[in-house]
Amino acid sequence: MSAALERLDDFKVHAAIYFNAIDVSSEFRADELRLSREAAERGVMISAATKDEASFERHAAQAKAAYEACERFPDGMIERSANEPLIIGLNLLRLLVQNRIAEFHTELEITNAETLADGRVQAVLELERFLMEGAYNKIAANRGALPDPSYEHFMSMLMDTVRDEIASCAQSAYARLSRDDATRLLGFSSASEFEVYARSREWTIDGNGTVIFNEEIAPASAKDIPSASLISQTLLYAKELERIV
């Protein structure tokens, strides 16, 4: 994939040299903008696939500039790119994951209505609403309904954030629960995966397989809440997370 990005950069350089070397007509200039737009879009897609966030941000900015240039072109000669909603949606998801909320809303304000109405953008707006509401189970449920496979990297990052939020809520509300319940609640596919995560949060797992949260964080009353009650209250989270693992 890195080789693909290198070839893409070479293409952009040669295209710029070619178009700058000739006396271009409006038609040629339109072709130049289309090629620049497509190159930036491909850069975004490759960067998402390779999880190269710096490259993604650079190519997303280039795509945005290309969209604006094409829209300003006289006589509506340049049609909108079919990939524009996908690129905009991906970039919005990146901003959401990186908690760049002010930039997220700025991008919404400058995005045209047609693109905003596209399902690939609406999916991200729905995730943002769920996140603001704290509806983490709905975010988990939506992971299996991504509008495009290229969303997977940033969605995985968002799910990590969601998992941390659910863990923090459980840790604040309860003193302990079984390892199996905790594994299901946090959406891990195995107890060993959960144990790695538990160590990262400095949770203790005793010889009976009971997860003991940080005593200074869990409220005293939580020690009296039985596991059965916990399971009934958190079953929705667990079921939704199981669907996506």
UniProtKB/TrEMBL annotation:
GO cellular component, one term: nucleus
Domain PCI: 56-245
InterPro entries, per database record: 26S_Psome_Rpn12, CSN8_PSD8_EIF3K, PCI_dom
Keywords, comma-separated and alphabetical: Proteasome
Example of a GO biological process term: proteasome-mediated ubiquitin-dependent protein catabolic process
Protein's UniProt keywords contain Cell division: no
UniProt record similarity statement: Belongs to the proteasome subunit S14 family.
Identification of the protein by name: Alternative oxidase 1-chlamydomonas reinhardtii
Biological source species: Ostreococcus tauri
